[in-house]
Write a structure and sequence with these properties.
Layout: E1 3-7, H1 15-22, E2 28-33, H2 36-48, H3 52-56, H4 60-74, E3 82-86, H5 94-100, E4 107-111, H6 114-127, H7 133-140, H8 147-155, H9 160-173, E5 180-184, H10 185-190, H11 192-203, H12 251-256
Parallel strand pairs: 1-3, 1-4, 2-3, 4-5
Helix pairs in contact: 2-4, 7-8
């Protein structure tokens, strides 16, 4: 019988590295970005409960069985019984997990200093040979392309960082943080085995001794879809690589997105949802 766990956190915060490390354990299948959540959501929303046929002849028990079977059918050809499904949406769709997968969700949430995330994205843009989804978003809104505007777009309610950050913060405000284990990127690269042991304890799984000098990733995720090259590449060795954030971030942006790591504070009320 398969056991389902989840990964859902901030972008550029080590989720790809974590999945690569967890996949060293032969008992675990840690997915790349997965459409499982979207499949459940759209099946529920559009193919069942809002369809004329279902409204005419409702069958709640049958619908629930259909939706509950989706995770098992999606991973039917996965030999491992421990599944860690990765999607940034899980933190604000905990009810879907409880309704259709397990009543006790366990979600691993990679997090990172926001300035470091912004700098990481901008570094990728400068390395890429294609127009990024970030610049495309600015152009659609007739906004000048600059690092300040890129940063603000990423942190907006439409931006990939802003959406993830707001979802995580809302999860805390709703009192659902009991279902989360936050893994800070700096801690992961500094003490990887220690952080992995924390994950195993959280999931109630036995420890596994990992290799940190020969990390390989699955090559089944096409970054061309995201229009940002090498977005999910990881280094072979787990180590902290220093980057001077001021190379990409202005003083204004550094000040604007400073001290946002609410997970390091006892009180979250002082932080606001960005872009709303």
């Amino acid at each position: 019988m398969k056991q389902f766990y989840f990964m859902s956190g901030l972008p550029r915060s080590g989720s790809t590295l974590l999945t690569a490390l967890l996949n060293q354990n032969p008992e675990i299948h840690a997915s790349t970005n997965s459409p499982l959540l979207d499949t459940i959501h759209y099946t529920e929303e559009y193919l069942l409960y809002n369809s004329e046929q279902y409204k005419a002849t409702p069958n709640p028990e049958g619908a629930h069985k259909v939706l509950s079977s989706i995770p098992y059918n999606y991973y039917f050809n996965t030999s491992q019984n421990i599944i860690i499904d990765k999607s940034r949406g899980w933190v604000n769709q905990i009810q879907h997990i409880q309704d259709y997968i397990t009543t006790e969700p366990k979600i691993i949430c990679p997090v990172r200093n926001i300035q470091d995330i912004l700098s990481s994205f901008l570094n990728l843009i400068y390395k890429s040979n294609t127009t990024s989804f970030i610049d495309e978003g600015l152009m659609r809104n007739d906004i000048e392309i600059s690092n300040d505007n890129r940063s603000d777009y990423l942190m907006s309610s439409q931006g990939i960082i802003g959406q993830s950050y707001n979802a995580l913060l809302e999860c805390y405000k709703k009192g659902n943080n009991q279902y989360l284990l936050l893994v800070d990127y700096d801690d992961l690269v500094k003490n990887p085995q220690q952080e992995l042991n924390r994950i195993y304890e959280f999931l109630n799984l036995p420890y596994y001794s990992h290799s940190f000098d020969d990390v390989t990733t699955k090559k089944d995720e096409n970054d061309e879809v995201y229009k940002l090259e090498k977005m999910h590449d990881v280094r072979n060795k787990v180590e902290k690589v220093h980057r001077d954030n001021t190379k990409y971030l202005s003083e204004n942006i550094m000040n604007k997105y400073n001290h946002m790591e609410f997970w390091k504070k006892q009180r979250t009320q002082r932080y606001t949802i960005f872009g709303l």
